[in-house]
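Pair request: fold both.
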Amino acid sequence: MTPAPTLIIGAGPAGLTAGLELLRAGYPQVTILEATDAIGGISKTVAYKGNRIDIGGHRFFSKSDWVMDWWRDVLPVARPMHDGDMPLGYQGQQRLLGSHEATAREADDAVMLIRSRQSRIYFGGKFFDYPLKPGMGLVRNMGLARCLQFAGSYMAAAARPIQPEQTLEDFFINRFGRQLYLQFFKDYTEKVWGVPCRDISADWGAQRIKSLSIGSAAKQALKKIVTGKTDTQHTSLIESFLYPKYGPGQMWETAAAEFERRGGRLLRGWAVDEIHRQDNRVERVVARDAAGQRQSFDASAVVSTMPIRELAQALRPAPDAPALAIASGLEYRDFITVGLLYRRMSPKVSGKARHVNDNWIYIQEPGVKVGRVQVFNNWSPYMVADPDTVWLGLEFFARDDDDLWAMSEDALKQLAVREMQQLGLADEAELLDATVLRQPKAYPGYFGAAFQRFDELRAWLDGLDNLYLCGRNGMHRYNNQDHSMLSARLAAQAILNGGAGREAIWAVNIDDDYHEEAEKKN
């Protein structure tokens, strides 16, 4: 009798990585169920009139050699068009991407480009370094007296850190001081999450900012002045990165093509309704297509990247009452991107150039709803149909039951254009076109009573022997795509090993040294 396939729920970075790792290892049957017609999850690329939108911005950078090599196996790195090397710094070294190592050409379609990173904070009509670091730029923008206040506040926090560190507010104050926290972190973070920093778990900071602080930033700045080099162990200090020529979705569309070429079954537009189990094993999954047709899929194992809330609600029989209540109470933040096409940005910020050099601009100004602005021209020039235009993505953070999410597309376009004018970043008279994208459940919430009990839910789900949770929503963890891939790799290895090692999945993205330690062991 032919064994039932492994079923993977979701064709994002985690789902596709798990599927390919199983097939590459000779696993006989793998089926991926993707609820939408798109590939890549939130790492997809959306095309609009020849322009491309990257939802949230995805730098292809990892401290894991395995991830970097995996990406390069799918899409080779293009040889720089200029002479000389453009190194990519990671794991404390400048390595990997000299022109002598690049095997493809930028003129090829299926390639990754080497891109320079620049992100800044926009506050009071001025640009500040991001990550925020001490230096003359900060003094010029804020004044010496204010900077001395920041320094005193930081030293006070360093001398008497908040212990135990429970909330995100505690986390920021311990690393930046109360004054810098109030000036540059509090309002923006609360705009992103929709709740006060004191109500958000410090776990979010541990996973997203890790051990970066104003002290480490000062050390990095001084080292660069003295030696010309920086330590790149902190993701936020990356100075260059890889990027698919036509956006992040190109990576996952190419990976999906390989998955199918190797015999994997990829079903688009099939949303999971029910997950049937017998005691502590999942036996089959019921999904429906856009026309409402339902189909049952037998499974020897299930890799789930779907939101845990929906996963628990789909289980038949249902989880016990406490676990189901926790899952049903988990919260998410949703994401709106308004794409705006301009002839140019305001000369007040771009000078004689058509646009600024930033990948992202973090908007700290009060009185506006936009949280961040992407300049797609700087991610890849091939994201923009006409190089004589500027293609921007304004990012708004919402919840699916709030007023912002309920706004019509026309109202969101008007809001975005008005705020760009208000900020002085672009003039409405230069606008050429606009579009709106909505991404539900973009961010798993690190707040609320249910999240405080998440470990109870995790323990219950871990009791299902052949269910493997990975990816951002699959683990309700704010993972980058490389973390999602590493969790998927471990899920695939556990399936190949008959379930052994499944607990290692939860070790991904819990401390700074995880990736390096994982590389040493494998």
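--- second member of the pair ---
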Amino acid sequence: MSKTFQAVPAPTTLERPTTDTHLGITRTDEFAWLRAENWQDVFRDPSLLDPAIRAQLDAENRYQQALTSDLEGLRGKLFEEMKGRIKEDDSSVPMNDGPFAYGSSYKKGGEHPRFFRKPRGGGSEEIILDGDHEGQGKAYFHLGGFDHSSDHRRIVWSYDDKGSEFFTLRTRDLSAGRDLPDIISDTAGSGVWDAENEGFFYTRLDQNHRPSKIFYHRLGNDPVQDRLVFEETDPGFFMNVGGTRDHRWIIIGINDHETTEHLIIDAKNPGSEPKLVQARETGVQYDLEEGGDVFFVLTNVDGAKDFKIMTTPVDDPRRENWSELVPHEPGRIILSIFGFKDFLVRLERKDSLPRIVVRDRKDGSEHVIAFEEEAYSLGLAGALEYDTEIVRFSYSSMTTPSQVFDYNMRTRERVLLKTQEVPSGHDPDHYVTRRLMAPSHDGELVPISLLHHRDTPLDGTAPCLLYGYGAYGLAVPAAFNTNCLSLVDRGFVYAIAHIRGGKDKGYAWYEDGKREKKTNTFLDFIAAARHLVQERYTAHDRMIAQGGSAGGMLMGAVANMAPEAFSGIIAEVPFVDVLSTMLDDTLPLTPPEWPEWGNPIASAEDYRTIAAYSPYDNVGAKDYPPILAVAGLTDPRVTYWEPAKWVARLRKLKTDDNPILFKINMDAGHAGASGRFSRLEEIAYNYAFTLKVAGRAAAEPA
């Protein structure tokens, strides 16, 4: 047993070898029995889990509790530190919409948000939905979508009380302050009002947790009578429904990871048939944004890999009518757009940094909202209204708390509305943020954003937590994070590796980290770790790696490929059994995920590619660092049995005495604990593990 952990016997996992053959390739899985055959039922009712599987998971929890019992005091201290940085009765800056301004807030000690509104010109707040009240007495509770009607008389809202992301929709009469009898289960979590506020559109999930049907519900009707608006028969596509801010259009979006399709419905005529904008074409993506008599189209057609903006008339939006407005610029990726009566605003990323560009629709002139820090994060909140000159955005960096601004697109006046308050205190001058570029195996330069205390010695003695994700084109922002200060104040370097698989350096950065090029993601992360060591920020024997979901798969892969590079690994809800999951087309996300990872059912090449890196399939007889895996029983995205099987095989094959811990929340899903303080307790657990592995468990914050 590693000298930093107690000598507690690890659970043994029964082996029941089963074989499967695909495309003439046979393999054996000794722990496949941990996958519950009735997993669909377990998502809705966890009590239906096979007792033998439950006993195994309970044994894992007892083991990790025993092994970390000496960290209880440290966890409590970390929790109080992180809680002390949160303004407990925090409130968002309400956003104007008609006669009201809408926002959200927390009450002191509250776990869940409350939604409120107040008169636009000022006045007292009216609480219209209290998450703490709705979640009272529930082991798990998560508020989903929230949408007020355009006449401001009602809201449609949703909740999940299992962690399985099957949301229940409800409708509330705001004048009466109570919910109507209209209750709809098994939805994706949001409803969109028609123009007359007589009903709403919503997406229903099938038994395999896939969004397969769009329905329209008229208030007062029995949901079993709801009209089927559209059905997607291809299980490889996600589907959602939304609306425009002028309440003119309902938009149905259909997509996988590389192809999109949209249909529109006149919001004043909810009974009309959806009108196709442009039929799906493999590899072609487009999004619609309102623009009055036109739609703005954000698209990659005609080789615009980093996207361009086009316009099309709303009366006939077919592709042959698309006209270029903002041309494609390689290396400048356009991430999102907001259309207004007189302006078009876009969020884009260039040179690995985000920026906001405002375009005057009358004369086509553009200007960029400028910022000065070396690395930072931007969020474009937009507006609830279409006819306005004010757009809202947020700004932060790894040293600068989040700031919320209203920006006048005409006068270019920037008004600071709110700066994130850190009640226990925060002085940005005590910290240093840097952007490094790490050379990877093929010469590509991998951006690293890092944060450290100004007094931390940069001589290789500092411990480091290196975070990575690298999938689906998602970029990890260099944003302010109050939680990581508990590590940074104890002498850690906190670093984010912006590896391939994200869009940090444009769409090509994403393409170079998927399917047959997936190993670039892992090699980039390892290169980032080694560069930090080379530059004397840390050393390999004090570097802990962390990632979640697809980032958890990254953790499993680098543990197999370069275990010596890390002194510890934290894998949250880790997607580690990639091959088995991609071979199981009954699972919720498998068919839609094939464009991202490949389809090993149909392609022997894809099978071999995934098999070559899938963490579970590549566990070997070698030394591994201490590993902490964290999961949720009702997770529909990364099922609990993936990490359960992974830790069992690691213990079976590894050649060292370092512990493998598996912490599973039996009352939660992919996002972990639902309340804000419960989530802090989970982070405190992870950080206590980190400090112990780094030999800093007794360290006090600076």
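Observation on the second member. Residues 93-137 form one domain.
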